[in-house]
Amino acid sequence: KKxxxxxxxGPPQGARRHGTGLAVLMFDLDCFKSINDIYxxxxxxxxxxxxxxxxxxIVRKADTVARLGGDEFVVLLAELTDPQAAERxxxxxxxxxxxxxxxxxxxxxxxxSVGVCLAATEELDADVLLRxxxxxxxxxxxxxxxxxxxxxxxxxxxxxEASQPNAPGEI
Length: 171
What we know:
Radius of gyration: 17 Å
Number of strands: 7
Mean pLDDT: 83
Distance between the termini: 38 Å
Structural class: alpha+beta
Strand content: 25-35%
Shape: globular
Largest sheet: 5 strands, mixed
Order of helices and strands: HEHHEEHEEEHEH
């Protein structure tokens, strides 16, 4: 079941209450479908369990890790006072998930792409934060995968332009 950021416990409300920032990290496993296709869905489920376990070891207790569906996860970094902490966590997630996972007697390597959206207290619109983190994730994948990418306003405007129909006579 997909969850909205506003339905997740704690962080957005806590950030408002404490006057701190928040970071939303959205990530998915690159080429996850091939793991299911080659090793089966049971192996794919194991990869998802290992992914969640590794990410939970990286984040603080105050943070939230949730699986949105399929191979898509979101991490909410609560009470963020140092924006560089989001960069460190994103880098740790990328590094932790490149460690091979034992599956069916083999060590299988997976990679992950991460989109990061930082928000100040006054910018805590849950749907916008998720949409922006998703746009950054898309850019991370388009830039070669196995990396993280911070959201920029340029990504929002380029996404809006891509969704606008062409004017008559334009290609």
